[in-house]
């Protein structure tokens, strides 16, 4: 006997997800996850604090030219994803979006890995980002204090760098300034 056909999730299903949870539609399935841990939240806030002033606002000698958003809703075809951080080069945007979500694939996306999301982030979501032409992907592990950077080349992810701990580096696609990764990790005495 065959299984009944699975009902594909709709945007209306996504709208029923309580505000204290994160909802995504991935390959037709509604995925609901809890809010992130303190390590995860701290890394996201610290990364935004590191990247937004120089790269979105042009402060501190930075080049500006980016729109960097925290947990944006991105619609890519039938997929509705919520990366931890994402960025678009301003010259690619044709005015202010008319909806609450972005339909233009980002130039850069960052997924902060949690035990409950790491497998999906590393496999399914990275494949979706590649299909839709996201240029650079960061996978950040706040527990192990690592950053893996991938560049999309000919439709496949290529490792562009692996960094960790309190290392300082110029990180693709934000190579103009050296960034101290040590600021991103939650240290509690």
Fold and architecture overview:
Helix content is 20%, strand content 35%. With 189 residues, it is of the alpha+beta class. The strands form four sheets. Strands 3-6-7-8-9-10 form a six-stranded mixed β-sheet, with helices on both faces. The longest helix is centred in the N-terminal third of the chain and has 19 residues, at 38-56. The protein is globular and about 55 Å long.
Coarse shape: globular
- The portion of residues forming beta strands comes to 35-45%
Our measurement of the CA-to-CA distance between the termini, rounded to an integer number of angstroms, reads 58 Å
Q: At the first level of CATH, what is the class? A: Alpha Beta
> What kind of sheet is the major sheet?
6 strands, mixed
Enumerate how many helices there are, as a single number. Answer: 3
Mean pLDDT: 92
Q: Tell me the name of the CATH homologous superfamily.
A: tt1808, chain A
The succession of helices and strands, N to C, reads HEEHEEEEEHEEEEE
What is the fold named in CATH at topology level? tt1808, chain A
Q: Based on helices, strands and strand pairing, what is the structural class?
A: alpha+beta
**Rg estimate, integer Å:** 17 Å
List segments where confidence is low: pLDDT < 50 over at least 5 consecutive residues. none
- Tell me the count of domains: 1
**Cross-sheet strand order for the largest sheet:** 3-6-7-8-9-10
CATH architecture: Alpha-Beta Complex
Q: What share of the residues lie within helices?
A: 10-25%
Write down how many β-strands occur, each being a DSSP E stretch of 2 or more residues. Answer: 12
């Amino acid at each position: 006997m065959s299984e009944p056909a699975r009902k594909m999730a709709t945007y209306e299903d996504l709208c029923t997800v309580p505000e204290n949870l994160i909802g995504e539609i991935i390959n037709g399935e509604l995925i609901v996850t809890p809010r992130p841990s303190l390590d995860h939240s701290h890394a996201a806030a610290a990364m935004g604090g590191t990247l937004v002033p120089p790269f979105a606002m042009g402060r501190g000698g930075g080049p500006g030219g980016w729109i960097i958003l925290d947990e944006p809703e991105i619609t890519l075809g039938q997929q509705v994803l919520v990366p931890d951080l994402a960025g678009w080069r301003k010259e690619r945007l044709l005015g202010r979006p008319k909806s609450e979500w972005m339909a233009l694939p980002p130039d850069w996306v960052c997924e902060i890995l949690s035990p409950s999301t790491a497998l999906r982030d590393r496999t399914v979501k990275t494949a979706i980002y590649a299909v839709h032409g996201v240029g650079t992907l960061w996978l950040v592990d706040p527990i192990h204090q690592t950053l893996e950077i991938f560049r999309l080349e000919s439709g496949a992810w290529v490792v562009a760098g692996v960094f960790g701990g309190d290392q300082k580096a110029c990180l693709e696609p934000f190579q103009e300034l050296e960034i101290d990764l040590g600021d991103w990790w939650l240290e509690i005495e």
